[in-house]
Amino acid sequence: MDKHRGKVVLITGASSGIGRASAELLAANGAKVIINYRTNEEGALAAKENILRRGGECIVVQADVSKKAEADRLVETGLQEYGQIDVLVNNAGSVIKRSPFLEIGEELWDKTFHVNVKSMYLVSQAVLNHMVKRKKGKIINISSVAAKHGAPGENIHYAAAKGAVNTFTVGLAKEFAPYGILVNAVAPGFILTPFQDKYSTQERIDRIIPTIPLKRAGTAEDIAAMVSFLASEEADYITGEIFTVSGGR
To answer: Which GO terms describe its biological process (predicted)?
Structure first.
């Protein structure tokens, strides 16, 4: 349980779902974790309580990472507390609202890209200024299978944003490889988290699960396991990849 001992991990959007599961798993394996949240203070504090109760170490930092000043403050707070950031998990993201393409307004389109793409750019830039000096580090971006299939009919804006995340991932991997920095992404399939509670009906859930070859929805822990692998030394020769975790769907 010491595979991440000595590492400091910053996870955005870590108050619930995939972000929280990743924070708790990495902390259980020895990492010091910086838990970021925007509005769900209760969830962030609950995650912190779980980590501390199990003997882990973490801090909680509120910040809207789609805004530069707040993203910079988040990173600076983590550096002041722990002196380094070894792994960044860019998890913050949201559908915002499902909508047929012809009903997507400019505000919804822009907000979707701010939350899912601009946030990654801002936090990554702030962290990379630190990682480049150390000539080491890892960035793990949370994408979606929607980037592959386009999510037609109700989620094209979200799929387009996650497509940008994939391109962003590969570009960062190539530019920062000479500095010993590895950048990869995880593309979850249909995962039962508070995300689905908010954006999916039970009818939609019941319709999708039979189409999954493994015949079950994924869990936040399924994705956290891949995040943990990519953050470990076992993945030290992997960069620029998008890993789909979808039960075969």
So the answer is: bile acid metabolic process
pLDDT tens figures, 125-151 = 999 999 999 999 999 999 999 999 998
pLDDT digits (tens, 9 = 90+) for 147-194: 999 987 789 999 999 999 999 999 999 999 999 999 999 999 999 887
- For residues 123, 158, 199 and 108, what is the CA-based torsion angle, rounded to 10 degrees? 90
Q: Which of 37, 158, 179, 237 is catalytic?
A: 158
Residue 150's contacts (CB-CB under 8 Å, 6 or more residues apart) are 156, 159
Instruction: Indicate the burial class of 95 (C-beta count within 10 angstroms; 0-12, 13-18, 19 or more).
Output: buried
Q: Say whether pTM exceeds 0.90.
A: yes
Q: Is 37 known to be catalytic?
A: no
Give the integer Cα–Cα distance in Å for 168 and 124: 10
DSSP three-state, residue 51: helix
Distance CA 223, CA 244 (A): 10
Distance from C-alpha of 160 to C-alpha of 144, rounded to nearest angstrom: 10
Distance between CA atoms of residues 129 and 208, nearest Å: 42
Residue 71 to residue 68: CA distance in whole angstroms = 5
Query: What ranges do the domains of the chain cover?
Result: 8-245
The CATH superfamily holding the domain 8-245 is NAD(P)-binding Rossmann-like Domain (3.40.50.720)
DSSP state of 209: G
Residue type, 113: F
CB 130 within 8 A of CB 108: no
